[in-house]
C-alpha cells in the first residue's frame, strides 16, 4: 500500500465513521437515561429522506439538517410516548419503530430517487490544508466531521462533570431513587430520547447529503444497528464510540478500496465485513461480563412509572 492509496482510504474512513459517531452518541445518551431505543435505523432513514428532500426543494443545507433532526425527533417522540407514558415494551416498540421508519422513508422518498444535491462544502484552512499527508487527513473535511468529534467531547464531559449529566446517569442507574429525591425522571427520559432522535436524524442526513449525496431507499444499510452495537462496544463511554466508529468506518470503506489496495478478496465478502466485524466485536466484548456490568446502566430497558 502506497501513501497515494492510504490517504484516500483514511480520509474516506473519517466520512464513513461520522454518521456512526452521531447516531451512537445519541443512543448512548438515551441509554444512559435507562431507555433502550432499538429504532435508530428507522430514525436515521427518516432523517435521511427529510434532510435530502428539504435541501433539494430549498437549496439550503442548513434547513435540510434541521428538517432531518426535526423529523427524526418526531419519530423518537412516538417511541417516547409509547414507552415512557404508555409503558409499552421498549424492545418491541423500538423494533416496530425501525420498521415504521423504513416504510415511511420509502414512501416519502418515492419522488426523490435519482436526484442529487450539492454536498456540504469542505473546510479549507490556509497553510494547514496544504500540508502533505497531514492536510488531507485532518484539515479538508466538512463541518459535520469536526462537529461530531466535538460533540463526543462535550457529551463525555457533560456526563462526567455537569449537574444535568450526573442527574441523567442517576436516573439510568436508579429511577426510583432519583424520583424519591425530586428529579423528574419521565421528563428527563423524554429529553434523552429526543436528543438521541435528533442525532440519529443528523446521522441519516449526513449519508444522504454528504456521503452519497442522493436519496436511495434503505441507504443506511444496517448502520443504525451498528451504532447500537457501538454503544456496547464503547461500554457506554463516549470516547469508546469514536474508536469503534473509526474501526467500523475503516472496515466499511475497505469494501470500496479493497481492489485498489490489491486485496484479492471477493467483493461479496468485503460487503459482509462490517456486519461480521460487528458480530465478532460483540462476541469478544461479551467475554468480559464484569466490564459490561460495571458500566451498563442498571435500569436500562426497565419501565418506570412515577406513581408507583
From TrEMBL:
One of its GO terms (molecular function) is transmembrane transporter activity. It is found in: Cell membrane. GO terms for cellular component: plasma membrane. Coiled coil: none annotated. It holds the Pfam family BPD_transp_2. InterPro entries: ABC_transp_permease (IPR001851). This is ABC transporter permease. It comes from the Bacteria. Keywords: Cell membrane, Membrane, Transmembrane, Transmembrane helix. It is a multi-pass membrane protein. The keyword Membrane applies. PANTHER family: ABC TRANSPORTER PERMEASE PROTEIN, SUGAR ABC TRANSPORTER INTEGRAL MEMBRANE PROTEIN-RELATED. CDD domains: TM_PBP1_transp_TpRbsC_like. The chain crosses the membrane at residues 6-23, 35-57, 63-84, 91-113, 133-160, 181-208, 214-233, 240-257, 269-286. The keyword Cell membrane applies.
